Amino acid sequence: MDSPALVALLQEAVPGARFESVPSIDLQTTLYVARDDVSAVAQVLRDRSDLRFALLAELTAADFWPREPRFELVYMLVSIEHSFRLRLKVRLPGDDARVATVSPVWPAANWLEREVWDLFGIAFDHHPDPRRLLMPEDWQGFPLRKDYPVQIRMTPRITEPMQLTEEEFRANLEKDRLVRRD
């Protein structure tokens, strides 16, 4: 399916949604969608029988600081049934970098969105588990932003490892073995 046909199909399925088809160096179909339309478009891309983008293969972001809109989210979608790949992009402003989660549509988005939030600071509204994934919980800032200070000096924070007696360790192993056997 070519870009104009896909855009026409999506505009019919999601009235009022804004799409922009752009050429791509790798000839993969690339569409920009407005952030307000992401949830509806994701639902259509997954559920329509002539599309069936059942797999969210990757989700990442790019920071184009100091340009506005500053961020671009990039969803890499695969329709296994139709042997088709789609690159779906969303532009986000630097002062309000947020978009609705697509984890109800593609469950794999749960961890991918957490990774993007953790490294870029892009928030996913209504995300089921918005905890940090890669950085420690007490980390300040977002390391993949272009304005993140590279020569950062932070006092390392460490925690005491849990100390167990030899008997407690053996009891835990035995309990785990019994649970796995059942």
Protein described:
The protein is α/β, with parallel strands linked by helices. It has four helices and seven strands; from the N terminus they run αββαββββαβα. The strands form two sheets. A five-stranded mixed beta sheet has the order 1-2-5-4-3, with helices on one face. Strands 6-7 form a two-stranded parallel ribbon. Strand 3 (55-63) and strand 4 (71-79) form a beta hairpin. It is flat and about 65 Å long. The mean pLDDT is 89.
Which short descriptors sum up this protein?
single chain, about 180 residues, alpha/beta, 5-stranded mixed beta sheet, two-stranded parallel sheet, flat
Secondary structure elements and their pairing?
Layout: H1 3-13, E1 19-22, E2 29-33, H2 38-47, E3 55-63, E4 71-79, E5 84-92, E6 98-100, H3 109-120, E7 123-125, H4 166-181
Parallel strand pairs: 2-5, 6-7
Antiparallel strand pairs: 1-2, 3-4, 4-5
